[in-house]
Structures
1.
Amino acid sequence: MPKDKPDVDSTRRTLLKTGAAAAAVAAAGRAFAQDGQAPAGTGFYERGDVRIRYNVTGAGYPLLLIAGGGLNSVFANFFNGRTPFDVIGEFGDEYRCISMDLRNAYSGQSTGPLEVDRPWDSHTDDQLGLMDHLGIDEFMVMGFCIGGPFIWNLLERAPARVRAAVDAQPVGFDPDMPDYFYEGNMSGWGQELLALRSDITLEMVDAFVTRMYRTDADFVFTVTRDFVRNCQTPILVLPDDTPAHPFEPAMESAMLAPNAQVSLFPWKQPEDRIPLAVRHIRSFLREHRPWTA
């Protein structure tokens, strides 16, 4: 049966009320950006010589959040306005939002060895290790930028644990700019890390970044098209169209994955489109969240 036409004014009032409530949830976190103090729920977990700084905000079904920023991905990005929308404010009142500093992000406090032979997997070890540390078996995940390849790696390595995924403005391989990520990380993240860590050499950084972004570079970096074609996990893709977030691999992944959805595009510009994308994310997560959550 056709649905009645929505009451636009009522919908707008509801959105405003929801936004106000969400803003209250995130208020303490925003102070982090102002005074440099970590928000409540921040802690560390250790596994051998790896030490990961993380934050847990909100309550409800577990939602792992992977911040953008490439190899300098840190959870502060969810509290200081460096995401397309206020992720914690929008979802912290409904989900247990779990985020972390990527191992060896120069702006963060997570440290550990530079595993040059398995760069993607070493970070996925940290993500799954954090969930184990928190006693969480099953969860959903939302990732931005570098979070895209991490999401696909999580789906390959732990398919039974990830109930659904949101892949926002993901990085991917662009054959027209094959060295974009290698060169950017060597001149940016790599140089910053070398200034902080006397135990890490330029040769190690080169090997690490080469393995990530040059060795077998294709598609979404971490999995093959055949894997995506056979992946049954529900996934929502929000593509971008920039050198760092190329449109083609994001859309190709959405077209290949049998249980994928894709947002409107563009979804960040003009800015009044962002609430539509957020509503799509919210309905997608609710659809795939356990009813008992």
Note: Confidence is low (pLDDT under 50) at residues 1-35.
2.
Amino acid sequence: MNTKISIIFATLAIILGSCASTKKVPYMVDAETISNEELSKIAANTEPTVLPGDLLEITVMSYNLEAVRPFNRASFVNELNRNLSNYNTDSNRNTYYIVDDKGEIEFPVIGKLKVGGLNKSQIQEMICNEIYPKYMTERPGVDVRFKNFKVSVIGEVARPGVYTATNEHITILEAIALAGDLTITGKRENIMLIRTDAAGKRSVHRLDLNDKALILSPYFNLQQNDVIYVQPNASKARSSWSIPPALTLTLSSIGTLVSIATLIVTITK
């Protein structure tokens, strides 16, 4: 009777354990229960801020093309390449602005501009104010684009790698989708997000893909150069464990000695 009861309890334990594991697989469980009021508070799109090392493409536009020509680096470089046509030059290499460690770029005519920590709208406004009305009689348009908006996804995903977002906006779920989704052995409730701010300071944040509150998180929208690391779960960790060779040799030796001792005892009886 006791044996039957033990078997029943063991079976129930296995079933309950399986149910608990299953709940850890879906993303954002019960997300449909989040109220519209809470969802309305989420910013539809968060503009990325410029970081040291970013590559920026900045175009100044106007009906008067000659007036804005000095402010467009691409035009200047193309003209330079035409004049140096006998040399081996890279026509694209110098058309982008590289943000230095101080968060600055060297802009034609204007000089040094502090762009680190600013978003695209703020940079556009700043450049317009530097050009108009000092250099032009009409206010120009300014277009700013990131050329290196990328995130890295590593760990327990199907395709670890570095992924570029051409539209300069990507969420954590989109990044995971690009990486082919988590493997079944990925730890969904403890995703690590490593972020670097405009001052070069790194911070680490933990995200739970099972939690419906993920969609409300300030880290749901990623920034350029974010790193997502998916840890292996307990089952993957257990399956990857192996006995060290030295311990294997020791256990083998002990087993041999035990066998010899048993043989001696049997013979002497």
Note: The first strand starts at residue 55 and ends at 61.
3.
Amino acid sequence: MLLQKDYKFWFCTGSQDLYGEECLQHVAEHSAIIVERLNQSGILPFEVVLKPTLITNEVIRRTFNEANTDDSCAGVIVWCHTFSPAKSWILGLQEYRKPLLHLHTQFNQEIPYDTIDMDFMNENQAAHGDREWGHMVTRMGIERKVVVGHWSDERVQKKIASWMRTAIGIIESSHVRVMRVADNMRNVAVTEGDKVEAQLKFGWEVDAYPVNEIAQCVEAVSVSDVNALVDEYYEKYDILLEGRDPAEFRRHVAVQAQIELGFERFLQEKNYQAIVTHFGDLGSLKQLPGLAIQRLEEKGYGFGAEGDWKVAAMVRIMKLMTAGMKDAKGTSMLEDYTYNLVPGKEGILQAHMLEICPSIADGPISIKCQPLTMGDREDPARLVFTAKEGKGIATSLVDLGNRFRLIINDVECKKTEKPMPKLPVATNFWTPMPSLEVGAEAWIYAGGAHHTAFTYDLTAEQMGDWAAAMGIEAVFIDKDTTIRQFRNELRWNSVYYR
């Protein structure tokens, strides 16, 4: 499953010819040094490519259109070294369609007090050249990210790196295709949504297939391929028989191996990167997909339970945004299950029937085979583990009828106070910020779902920037949230997005 492509980001410097060729030569030299140092920093996850200095309307327009058509270009970074008349950028900006970052910097970090003269002042004009450019982008209503500071500052470089991952989420959103195996759960509101509007806003294609069409692909998997994958399972995971006959246990595990192989081949053949299932419509499948889905998620596929295609698409996007990240802690679909309301120990137990991604696991991962009342099929095998501790974000994309809203909640993941030996599923346990009481209250006022797309590896700012680029509402629940302020924000947003 291809998660990380060889994307690049273009570095475009704005200037003009008022101060002569020598000045333009310095501009080009300075830009080249900045790009070289950014690439050498080891902080940026993708390469920055220097483009010739942009001066005229024609060159600016052509460069932006070349960026549009270059599949390897994931976005453009703009810096106005000297004064660049912003009307020259209008046509290029009107036709540009990819993520945009405005790097408000200058080549020198400190004013050269002893030598500064008017030649230096004329050449190093980002303090007002960037403001001229920023005015035009604002007037045109173009969404962009602004990063301020010296280009050599690690803090600035980390901000650029963070935005690059957001840009990948923006670019890749239009490539997300979700395969719906059956429909969502009957009478459930939050897993519904306008699929046409989702394609208009996010570029997602959300298609339905009869369950038995994919079941035929599962049935076509050879015994030898299934046995080879089962052997891999037994080598990789702890096997918890818990009194079951070993041969019978292995047969149940083999069903999941067959589902994993069949589903993945079907997804690859049809070019889908995310999938939803529903326990109420399993057709000829022998088990509810459990271990199989967990493995597919770990490979980078998005997943949503009970037909929740919005969660499936968001999990896929967040996996793309975190691909290749050093020391990544994981991304998964999760569901709010039950509370711990003991004072000082408040939190929400996160789990699902089967399908939590093992990328978030901490410690050993085991295979269990347990009965499941939903689905009316044989006992499904599943991976069981507890999740890592640490900070993360839980997101919920909801359709409010007249708009989409992305709810983003900072959470603190913890270990449960005691083990849960009778609970045969993967679990996470977190306290939402700023507290369970305020976090849950705000979540409910915002209309948040019980399914979430969760990650340890992205920030609320990154997901908020993604939402802004998509042209949708985003609301944040964090350490500073108060219910009065939050409810007022929802009221103001309802007017803005009407």
Note: The mean pLDDT is 96.
